[in-house]
């Protein structure tokens, strides 16, 4: 696993950052993306999710937010960014890119059933709700791994350590 400073390929970070409108250190910014990545990779070890898709979801899911509040189109805008990039830049095939775009588009819809990789992405984001003072509801998580009390406690600690 890479360190936080190089968790994502530098060129991808540059491309995402050039269109990012919010505060880099805000509630939907860099630190959140790093936690979602860390949470997702831990979940993927148990769920069997594709770790590359999970990592890229962390980078793209909030990358095109217009604000920190209600922003219903932000997931689809993040997916459009994903779809605009060459497959080689993402290190994915077309099917995995489609999964990533789907995960980004629908990550705030509240779905609890999905492909295991998509569900792992959504759970990683939901487990970081602690950062805004919200306890993740296990009944709204997709994977058994994310519903484990130990994982929920770890996600809480991860958020508090970052705060």
Could you explain how this protein is built, in words?
The chain is mainly α and 163 residues long. Helix content is 57%, strand content 0%. The protein contains nine helices and no strands. It has helices at 10-18, 30-47, 51-60, 74-84, 87-90, 94-105, 116-126, 144-147, 149-162. The two termini are 22 Å apart.
Summary of the model, kept short:
With 163 residues, the protein is mostly helical.
Helix content: 55-70%
Order of helices and strands: HHHHHHHHH
Q: Choose one word for the global shape.
A: globular
Number of helices: 9
List the topology elements.
Blueprint: H1 10-18, H2 30-47, H3 51-60, H4 74-84, H5 87-90, H6 94-105, H7 116-126, H8 144-147, H9 149-162
Keywords:
mainly alpha; about 160 residues; single chain
């Amino acid at each position: 696993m890479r360190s936080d400073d190089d968790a994502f390929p530098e060129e991808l970070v540059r491309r995402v950052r050039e269109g990012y409108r919010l505060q880099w250190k805000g509630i939907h910014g860099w630190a959140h993306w790093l936690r979602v990545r860390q949470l997702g990779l831990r979940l993927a070890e148990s769920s069997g999710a594709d770790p590359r898709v999970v990592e890229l979801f962390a980078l793209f899911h909030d990358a095109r937010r217009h604000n920190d509040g209600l922003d219903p189109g932000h997931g689809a805008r993040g997916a459009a960014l994903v779809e605009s990039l060459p497959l080689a830049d993402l290190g994915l095939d077309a099917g995995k890119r489609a999964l990533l775009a789907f995960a980004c588009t629908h990550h705030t819809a509240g779905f609890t059933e999905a492909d295991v990789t998509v569900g792992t992405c959504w759970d990683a984001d939901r487990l970081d709700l602690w950062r805004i003072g919200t306890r993740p509801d296990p009944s709204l998580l997709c994977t058994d791994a994310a519903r484990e009390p130990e994982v929920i406690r770890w996600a809480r600690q991860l958020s508090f350590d970052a705060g």
